[in-house]
Amino acid sequence: MNKIKKVITALIVILIIVGLSWVFFFSNYLKKENLNELIIYGNVDIRQVNLSFRMQGKIQKMYFDEGERIKAGKVVAKLDPQPFLDEVAAAKAELQNVEANLLKLKNGYRIQDIESARESVKGSESEYNNALVLYKRNLNVVDKGVVSLQNLDNSLTQVKQSEARLNSAKEQLNLSEEGFRKEDVMQGEAQVAQAKAILQFAKTNLNDTKIIAPNEGIVLTRIQEEGAVVPVGSPVYTLSLVSPVWVRTYINESDLGRIRPGMEALVYTDSHPDKPYKGHIGFISPVAEFTPKNVETTTLRTDLVYRLRVVVDNPNEYLRQGMPVTVKINLVKKNAG
After folding, report:
1. What pTM, to 2 d.p., does this model score?
2. What angle do CA 122, 126, 129 make, to 5 degrees?
3. Residue 232 to residues 56, 197, 306: CA-CA distances in angstroms?
4. What's the longest Cα–Cα distance across the chain?
5. Contact 281, 249 (CB under 8 A)
6. Are 258 and 37 spatial neighbours (Cβ–Cβ below 8 Å)?
7. DSSP states of 119-156
8. How far apart are alpha carbons 125 and 205 in whole angstroms?
9. Which residues pair with 222 in a beta bridge?
């Protein structure tokens, strides 16, 4: 009986020793693995953009439906352009008008205009001289009662009026001979510049009747339909961009010193665990925050962590917004480099 107890005791001791050995071995092994490789968890983050018109108007055409892929630079929708074409035509006409006026100001009066002004001066001089002669004649005989004082006053009025017309004709002749003032030309140039700006503004509005895809992406939502009148900035499409695609993940403070921007990473998904995506660390937040509830980590969710962005270098259509992924960073390989 004592022998059996001794044997059982010896077996228990051996099992304890073997167990401790295995624990020691695996702890060292896992420690080496943790030193060689960092495993973190996160979710795919894909940018989305709402496409809208910069002008108010009636939608004439919607070119894409939900789920369709759009290349950058493609027209995705357009408004009825007719009101904006009318604005461009009106702006062009006004520009031609002010340009013609500026040309007249720069070239001055025509020879025919100057000659006409000279003839006008001659006619006004003749009229003035005749009025003056009549006034002097009436003045000489007014005392004899041949002409009334009323007639004398009328002849004096005619002298003054004809003199004013003569002065005006001479001034117009001087302007015709000297040409337009520098200030008039400058004002004409300003009017032309303003008309050009209005025309460019009208052309810009016309161009803004089209929505151009800023990047390659996939239509998530077709919000409006043809015939709808939309205000400025009202979303028409929601586009999910193909690139860039990154993983939003978090890292403990203790692991913060083991990584740096640019380090290579492998991104694993549950749907294709044997085909990881290549990527690299693109951003490490300098500010600590609490771990979000949707991130699977092996530490408490109340721990402070640092947000990390892992850019996927070779994304495809299998990476979807919010998809949970596992990120592995080979620390030894990067440190050796």
Report:
1. 0.59
2. 135
3. 5, 22, 39
4. 181
5. no
6. no
7. HHHHHHHHHHHHHHHHHHHHHHHGGGTSS-HHHHHHHH
8. 58
9. 237
In the chain, where are the structural domains located? 35-47+243-336, 49-79+208-239, 86-204
Report helix, strand or coil for 114. Answer: helix
Q: Does the domain formed by 35-47+243-336 have CATH 2.40.30.170?
A: yes
pLDDT per position as a tens digit, 178-195: 666 778 888 999 999 999
- Tokens at residue 239, please? 């586009």
Contacts of 123-126 spanning 24+ positions with Cβ under 8 A? 123/169, 124/162, 124/165, 124/166, 124/168, 124/169, 124/170, 125/166
Q: Torsions phi, psi of 152, nearest 5? A: -65, -45
Q: Which amino acid type is present at position 273?
A: P
Residue among 192, 174, 32, 44 at smallest CA distance from 113: 174
Taking only Cα atoms into account, the Rg of the chain, rounded to an integer number of angstroms, comes to 46
For 135-144, give one letter per residue: b (16+ CB within 10 A) or e.
Answer: beebeeeeee
Residues 6+ positions from 191 with CB-CB distance below 8 Å: 98, 101, 102
Around 202, how many Cα atoms within 13 Å sit in the side-chain half-sphere? 20
Architecture in CATH for domain 49-79+208-239: Beta Barrel (2.40)
Q: Tens of pLDDT along 280-334?
A: 998 888 877 766 655 555 454 556 788 889 999 888 878 888 889 999 988 765 4
- Please state, in angstroms and rounded to a whole number, the distance separating the CA atoms of residues 113 and 182: 20
Q: Is 159 helix (H, G, I), strand (E, B) or coil?
A: helix
Q: DSSP string covering 250-308, please?
A: EEEGGGGGG--TT-EEEEEESS-TTSPEEEEEEEEEEEEEEPPTT---SS-TTSEEEEE
